[in-house]
Amino acid sequence: MMRRKQAPTGLLRLPLFLLIWGIACVAMWIPATHAVILNDHPTSQSFFFSGLLGLFAVSVIALSVGNRTPRFGMPGQLLSLLATFAVLPVFLAVPVQDALKNTSFLNAYFDMVSAVTTTGADIYSDPGRLPPSVHLWRALVGWLGGLLMWIAASAILAPLFLGGFEITARGEPGGGGGSSIQIQQADPRRRLLLVARALTPVYSGLTLVVWTLLMITGSKALPGLTHAMSVMATSGISAVGGVHEASSGIAGEMVMFLFMFFALSRLTFSSDTVTTGHGRLDRDPEFRAGLLIVFGVPLLLFLRHWLATLEVTGAEDSFQALRAFWGALFTVMSFLSTTGFESADWQTAQDWSGLGTPGMILLGLALIGGGVATTAGGVKLLRVYALYLNGLGEMERLVHPSSVSGERVGNRRLQKNGAFVAWVFFMLFALSLAGISITLAALGADFETSLILAISTLSTTGPLTEVASSEPILLWQLAPAAKLVLCFAMVLGRLETLAIIALLSPNLWRS
Fold first, then answer.
1. Phi-psi bin for 444: left (phi > 0), alpha (psi -120 to 50), beta?
2. How far apart are the C-alpha atoms of 470 and 200, rounded to whole Å?
3. 119 burial type by CB count under 10 A (0-12 exposed, 13-18 middle, 19+ buried)
4. Which of 29, 355, 383, 441 has the greatest number of C-beta atoms within 10 Å?
């Protein structure tokens, strides 16, 4: 006899979006308390009363729907994710707009969409314009958005074979028909709760360690906390305008560099999504591909600059050369993980050789992105690796058409049609990139600006708008329609095109 699933009780009966909304309301009291400590009572009142009114609204809605049995499982949770990234920022922007007084609600909404999707596109170019508590709120929203992606990857996206899991799964993306018996029988809400209980302490503990180490290296409390949150969430949000403006120096950059490795592979912090192959980090194709890019690209840039220096001066400055290499190493890691922090020595590489480093390199790194089921965006390393394996196999077939090759060691995690699914996603990503670029161009942006804006939002790497072009792109000067297009692109880049298509599929809701 089949065992009947136990009906959800307590908070598990409430919709996921309502629970996330309640957590956001409580989180508003953190910057409210911070503002009270700084004697900034107007800002404190903005956050405190916004959180209080939000909790009242959540309580009323919870009482009205609490007795209803949830109708949808995984599809409803996926829809809640979409609502979190697109609808919840309307509420999150209320205290920001009220605290600043001199900004439009659209700009505040744009800023919150950028934060919760871990994009980090800074519409307020002057950090001094924002009160310290607003800086804390922006970093906190980005940090919570990163935690949500950690949890959702295992509890929502993996069972539906989305978010990169379609390459390793044995079922149709969005269908979930080939998932394991444990995943099929488990209640989606209880699974979400178990994953949250397991990962939240890890995420919080790592953030606390980064913050402590940054404080030891000389960073002040608020900049160190915002940078620690941004590194773990790969949001690139800073209270002082970037890492190069912080007082932690190269030691602080080294600390952040080490913790950015958590964005290259989920195996760096959890093996809960490994269903095939092995769970060893040293054999993980994503982590190995990430290491190759992180150390290979700076080495090529270093050699390029070194040769240019020999041609100009005929000698080398060893100390400046090391600084140039470190600047390239940190910046490459930062943009590959879609964090977007620029090293203080990134400009040193250009000054050392006399050559300008093109922003196209950073655009390409952000497009590749980090690991599947991490806070990083972009196409993802596993998809790039699947396409690489497929291309390598096709070239071998050209040389030896009749050869029969066995299964590669690095190919055990990939399904038979993994390269095909990766290519489909890459084409959808390219079509989205073209569509967003064309729309922005139609709204008045030039070709270079529209391309950089499209890549930065779809890859959730907002700081590209400041470093990829010869001059920073001032987002507040864009037309209101262009800002809404960028908000759509950030949500699309965070949730990914396949997930949006899956929500539109009737088969998913029937199941």
1. left
2. 40
3. buried
4. 383
Does position 223 have pLDDT exceeding 80, yes or no?
A: yes
Q: In whole angstroms, what is the distance from residue 317 CA to residue 35 CA? A: 47
* Residue of 156, 165, 161 lying closest to 177 (CA atoms): 161
SS (HEC) of 94-139 = HHHHHHHCCCCHHHHHHHHHHHHCCCCCCCCCCHHHCCHHHHHHHH
- The reported pLDDT for the residue numbered 353 is 62
Which of 82, 153, 121, 160 is closest to 380 using CA atoms?
153
The pLDDT value recorded for residue 507 is: 67
Provide the CB-side half-sphere exposure for 235 (13 A, CA).
34
Give the DSSP letter of residue 66.
Answer: T
Question: CA-CA distance, 368 to 339, in Å (whole number)?
Answer: 13
The amino acid at 223: P
What's the one-letter identity of residue 181?
A: I
Could you tell me how far CA 142 lies from the centroid of its own chain?
A: 9
Assign 3-state DSSP to the chain and report helix, strand, coil percentages, each to 5.
70, 0, 30
SS (H, E, C) 146-170: HHHHHHHHHHHHCCCCCCCCCCCCC
Mean residue pLDDT across the chain: 86
* Cβ atoms of residues 232 and 309 within 8 Å: no
What is the percent of the chain where pLDDT is above 70?
85
**Residue ranges in 337-446 assigned as alpha helix (H):** 346-353, 360-368, 381-399, 418-442
> Would you state the pLDDT for residue 189?
80
Nearest by Cα to 265 from 371, 166, 411, 149: 371
When mean pLDDT is compared over 207-211, 355-359, 465-469, the highest value belongs to 207-211
Q: What confidence tier does 447 reach under pLDDT thresholds 50, 70, 90?
A: very high
User: Structure pTM?
Assistant: 0.92
